[in-house]
Amino acid sequence: MKPRAEVEKEILEIVDRETRAWDTKDVDLLITVFHPDMVWPWPPTSDAHDPLKWVLVLGRFDAQRWKKVWQDLFDTHALVHNRRQTRKIEVSEQGDGALAVVDVDTLWRDRDGKDFHWKGRACKVYSRVGKDWKMTMHTGLLEY
Questions:
Q1: What's the confidence (pLDDT) of residue 57?
Q2: Contact predicate 15/32, CB 8 Å
Q3: pTM of the prediction?
Q4: Alpha-carbon 4 to chain mean position
Q5: How confident is the model at residue 2, as a pLDDT?
Q6: How confident is the model at residue 115 (pLDDT cuts 50, 70, 90)?
Q7: By three-state DSSP, how is residue 116 classified?
Q8: What number of CA atoms fall less than 13 Å from residue 43's CA on the CB side?
């Protein structure tokens, strides 16, 4: 088993890789972070802490479907800013599971000047798959 500090660096790398993908609008890079069994629940608002209100917009990970959704966003919106701060990384005692708590403030603007703002705290959950880490779950952004 790898030392905890080394695993934390690996988790930070995948968090930073995801951020880089959003920053550069690189859908192929973005897709590399997801586990094939990932499901992404999303609250309708940043104060919807009760999961009874959450929705599943994309369903189970499907690379082609998810790539199309993200590419459509990239093609129709300018990225105004993407501020992300990793607040915590937690690794399982076995070194095969981890989570990262990330504060996100990402602002997109469409061609008509309408803003699409992602703001709040996410919990990104990862599983070791062979030598790689893959995101298995991600809570939608919530304000705490």
A1: 85
A2: no
A3: 0.93
A4: 22
A5: 84
A6: very high
A7: strand
A8: 20
8 Å CB contact between 104 and 121: yes
Once rounded to an integer, what is the mean pLDDT over residues 45-68?
93
C-alpha 109/C-alpha 131 separation (Å) is 37
User: Nearest CA to 108 among 66, 61, 136, 72?
Assistant: 72
CA distances from 106 to 57, 94, 121, 123 (A): 19, 33, 11, 16
The dihedrals phi and psi of 6, each to the nearest 5 degrees, come to: -70, -40
Q: What is the rounded CA–CA span in Å between residue 25 and residue 49?
A: 29
DSSP helix/strand/coil, 18: helix
| pLDDT digits 0-9 by tens, 12-43 | 999 999 999 999 999 999 999 999 999 989 99
Q: Which are the contacts of 136, defined by CB distance < 8 A and separation ≥ 6?
A: 35, 37, 38, 125, 126, 127
* Average pLDDT value for residue range 93-106: 96
Q: Count of alpha carbons within 13 Å of 65, Cβ hemisphere only? A: 7
Confirm if 126 and 133 have CB atoms less than 8 A apart: yes
